[in-house]
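Support reply, case 0932

Customer input (verbatim):
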Amino acid sequence: MTQTQKILVTGATGTVGRQVVAELLDRGHEVRALTRDAGKASFPAGVEVVEGDLTEPDGLAPALEGVTGLHLITFGGAAFSPLETGPRILELAKSARVRRVTVLHGGGPTPLEDAVRAGDGVDWTVLMPVEFMANALEWADGIVASGEVREPCVDRLSAMVHEGDIGAVAAVALTEEGHGGQEYVITGPDVLTVGDKVKTIAAAVSREITLVELTEEQAIAQWRAAGLPEDVIGFLLMAYGDTPEVGRTVSGTVEKVTGRPARTFTRWAAEHADAFTKRS
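Our regenerated output:
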């Protein structure tokens, strides 16, 4: 166990941020969670909750006092726009003597990540997870209502990652030496098709689930009906039709960094079985 440290986690109410908080607590560290509305935030006992907005970095100075590590996201504000405030955030972090910074990769180049990579005086680590296992929650309503999953490109491959493992890699990089200047691609332990995922969920809930393969046209119509923007639909068509190699290759990062194997989709499905059996 490393010496107890205090870490500031931004994006702490998000899918990954909550896991970073949980992992740090499990490892015995102190956590300060940044949120834009502390009154609406719910965290485990022992977490210090502070209000702040990454789009207004000058207000972050008090939150940075006394912390040794900082976890950052690349988008901020109510509209989740790419943050342009990276240089100022890094300046404040260095003034506060923050030693280590992790940044959750946003899927492509972003101003904040560029600022982190260019910064000196802190050990930075870029976290680059592939598809989240939590994406399977998008199927929950269809499974509950009709016992179906309706998807295109069902043979596409994914080395999808448990969100807890992203949090675990972040927690190590934020509290231990040897991770500065690293870019970590974070995956699960297996490469799965859509059919593999559906079978795993079916086993977890002890129910037959039918996989219906959609044509591209049917998929586009379904996504539009769900309100997805056209640029997101275009990205999904590209990613599903020709998944980049990095998204379908097991990296081994979780075990290398944390010392234990990456968590399986079977485990994730068991942990989230209620989502596929109860109406939201």
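We compared this against your earlier run and they match. Two observations from our side: The two ends are 40 Å apart (CA to CA). The mean pLDDT is 95. Please reopen the case if you see a mismatch on your end.
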